Structures are given as C-alpha cells and as structure tokens.
Amino acid sequence: MELQCEWQSFIYSLSKLRDKMEFLEKDKYCSISIKQSLQEESLKEFQRLISRCKCKSIVVLFKALKKGFDNHVPTLTNIAKTKKSEGFSFVIVISEVNADNYPEELNIVPTLTEAEDVIDMENIERELGF
Q1: How far apart are CA 94 and CA 60, in angstroms?
Q2: Whole-angstrom Cα distance, residue 66 to residue 68?
C-alpha cells in the first residue's frame, strides 16, 4: 500500500511538470525529457523525481536546451555520482555540446541509442566487477 501511495504522489508530481518534462519508464531505464530550462522550483522537483527512481538507470534528454544545460551541470554531476554509487547508470542526451567540456562523471552522448549503449556497457562492467 505504501508503494502505491508513493507512486501516486510521483505521478501527481509529474503532472505538475508536464509542460517542462516528460517521464517514460522503459525496461532498462527511466527516461526524462527536459523540454525547457528548469527554474529553481522545478529543478528541486526534478531532483525529487530522480531520487524516487532508485531501481533503474536514468536517461535525461535535453531537447534544444544548450543554453540552459550549463546551469544544471553541478546538480546533474551530483545525481550521476549518486546513481553510480547505487549501481546504476545516469546518461545525458544532448546533441549540441562537446562532452569533453564537462566533468567526466557525466555520461553525455548525442543520441538515445548511444545512451542505451552506455547503459549496456556499464551493466556489463558492473557484472564483471570493474
């Protein structure tokens, strides 16, 4: 019952952010598409939603948000470190940036297919004990 209440709260939170982000749960990961730059309040809600997705890897897709992306790098880096410590992947999909300009903790790729490949590779690494 507690899990159902938590899930309903999660869905309600998502409905408040629908114009800013879209959430999809896939077999191997949760996908969050960011449609517009997140302001302070919605960024906190984003972090809360991320923290509830404990049992899967996460892919965050930034859609045409190169300008706003840099503002979120510290938060995204902290989330990436947390997900890694939990044994999951955290991958960012954004095509307009050079991944070499960002912290190495961030898995930044230009396409969703590459994000799925990163998750698969990291799963294999974890299974092999790397």
Answers
A1: 9
A2: 6
Residue 6 contacts by C-beta under 8 Å, 6 or more apart in sequence?
52
pLDDT tens digits for range 43-61 = 777 777 777 777 789 999 8
Among candidate residues 115, 112, 58, the one with its CA nearest the CA of residue 83: 58
Buried b (16+ CB within 10 A) or exposed e, 31-51: bbbbbeebeeebeebbeebbe
Alpha carbon distance 24, 70 (integer Å): 24
pLDDT tens column, 11-47? 555 555 666 777 788 888 988 888 776 666 667 777 7
Please tell me the total number of residues recorded for the chain in this structure. 130
pTM for this model (two decimals): 0.80
Domains of the chain, first to last: 2-128 (3.30.750.24)
Q: Smallest Cα–Cα separation from 74: which of 109, 119, 43?
A: 43
- Tokens representing 48 are 């809360």
